Amino acid sequence: MPGLPTIGIGSKGHYVKLLQMDLNGLALNYNNFTIDGIFDSKTSNATKNFQDRFEIKSDGIVRSLTWKLLIENVKAVQKLLNSYGFHTGYPDGWFGSHTTDAVRKFQNHNGLSPTGIVDPRTRRKLFNPHPQDNIDKRPSSNDINSLQPHVAMLARRFLELTRSHNLDVKITQAFRSWDESDRLFAQGRTTPGPIVSNARGGDSYHNWGLAFDAAPVENGQISNDTQKYFTMGHLGEQLGLKWGGTFKTIVDYPHFQYTFGLNTWDLLNGITPPK
Known about the structure:
The chain has 2 domains: about 15-125, no CATH class; about 135-270, Muramoyl-pentapeptide Carboxypeptidase, domain 2. It has 9 helices and 5 strands, in the order ααααααβαββαββα. The protein has helices at about 15-25, 40-55, 65-85, 95-110, 120-125, 150-165, 180-185, 225-240, 265-270, and strands spanning about 170-175, 210-220, 220, 240-245, 255.
């Protein structure tokens, strides 16, 4: 945007701090960067996650388009909070203390954890206060029928295609509950184990029936044969599925998704995929 500088790793100062405040407020601070005005690798990774979400150049460098999308998203939050009576002041696109306080008040009012950041459950309540489903309460399932109908069809075609290439493949997870995603997100952050996910509950395509996990089977056991996963990935891509083996942050070989061009914020905001 005009007047805003291009910044990246090594940049310091006021605009880096504004960037960090916005990324943190939009619940993109997965790696706990410090809001200190220093553009480090953690800030870069959070920027890449934001860029990935909007399918723009994901290099961690903040240029005009990244600024524009970031500011627009914060403004949308501020305008809604103001409309509900949780005042942020003028919606300027910067996630400062007034916006943080307004988010906390909104969360307290709605029985949500008062973190002050727009996590997925907060986003859904803010943008889609009266959803027509209870998808956030559904249990996890490895049944293909728990997927969105078109994605379920693609999963069946995927299994047929892998069989035709002499691969024995099973679906290990279809729909994933929001609570399970929260537990996976906590791993390596607030609970023991390595970090395996950047998706809180509601921020995974599994939580919307738009993704499934699959694994090769050999002698009745899940195989760790990387080449088989690559073959599966290429076959899935032939069907128009996006394969987690190509992810830039946390590579996820078993993962396949079909998103209808929607990101998870779209889904949380109440936009539904076609039937």
